[in-house]
Amino acid sequence: MTPTRVETEDQSKLYRRISEVSEMVGVRPHVLRYWETQFSMLRPKKNRAGNRMYRPDEIRLLLRIKELLYQRRFTIAGARRRILDDRKEPATPQAELGFEDADRKMVLHEIRNELRVLLGKLRDRPVRS
User: Most CB within 10 Å of its CB: which of 18, 35, 45, 62?
Assistant: First the structure.
């Protein structure tokens, strides 16, 4: 079945009204407004008339909030923390070293330091002919 023109246009809409988003997410509009007060990262734009206009990333966020609150039974505070953690940049992954690898790295580090000390001593030493 091929999508109609209306369905195609509907998927590409940049902004959606609160009534549309309410239907998509499956909660009443007052719930969406309440979530705005509880989740600082949720800030839909408002048009000239003051109506909320949601972008696709905000809709994805609302769906995530609903999942955390309704399916996974998080508290509001717990859901807020989880979303903030999800949005953080992943730190540089730390590889776990086994004892053998750690010993090897430590030995290499000590050898490098000793070589630097020796090199410094050799540079300070007068040249003999």
Answer: 62
DSSP for 48-105, written as a single string: TT--EEE-HHHHHHHHHHHIIIIIS---HHHHHHHHHHHHSPPPPPPPPPPHHHHHHH
Q: Give Cα 85 to chain centroid, integer Å.
A: 7
Q: How many residues does the chain have?
A: 129
pLDDT for 106: 75
> Is 74 in contact with 68 (CB distance < 8 Å)?
yes
Angle between helix 18-25 and 29-38 (nearest 10): 90
Listed in sequence order, the residues at least 6 apart from 87 whose beta carbon sits closer than 8 Å to its beta carbon are: 41
d(CA 43, CA 52): 9
Band (pLDDT 50/70/90 cuts) for residue 30 is very high
- pTM: predicted TM-score of the whole model, two decimal places: 0.60
How do strand 52-54 and strand 16-17 relate by DSSP bridges? antiparallel
- Of 86, 95, 14, the C-alpha closest to 55 is 14
